[in-house]
Hints:
The chain has one domain. The chain has two helices and no strands. The chain is an all-alpha fold.
Amino acid sequence: MVTPEAAQVGTRLDEHHTPETNGRMPVCRKCGARTDAPAGHHHRPTERELIRSDNWLVAELRMSHIQQARTLRQQ
Length: 75
């Protein structure tokens, strides 16, 4: 059973990127979260992965803001 928090983080990960798996393990190569199947159509993080997955999303957002600032500075 997936908790509402896990479903929310999974949806946020799906919005950020399509899961990338090796086809054998249900783990996304990009963020490390579990996926729904080895083919990886959707992220389905476990309760233990929620904090790490949420922190990963925050870090990605910060990195995109830094990149945007660098781009604006170069113009």
